[in-house]
Amino acid sequence: MDLGIDDFHYSDLYDHSRLAALARSFDVAVEQSDGDLFRRFDAYRIAMQNGIAHGALTEPQESELLISVARHLGAFLAQLFRSYDSDMLRFGVPRISDPDDQCDRGDDLHHSIENEIVALVLQQAGRAAEE
User: Fold this and answer.
1) SS3 2
2) 54 in a domain, yes or no?
């Protein structure tokens, strides 16, 4: 199944090198959208990987940074799964018609997948930065 970013496929989510490429795509997307935010986030990741508490930021600064990056990550994931909604129907997962509805089976699955991808992307972003 094709994903909505570059030439990524669902199977790439289980491939270390493709996850690294996806993490780099996320970095490029953030950098193109907000270069200053990317530089701050990149410095934060490096500091965290080096064991510097809170990435050398105050706790409020760290929270603000992570919330700002999360907005970009949300947009990135929405684009990544752009083609996923129609494919979800093929796999028996109902379409989410109203975002204000309570979570249904499809919504729970979609959020579970998103959470898994977020964890993988952030974990891979850390590994890619180490290389």
Assistant:
1) strand
2) no
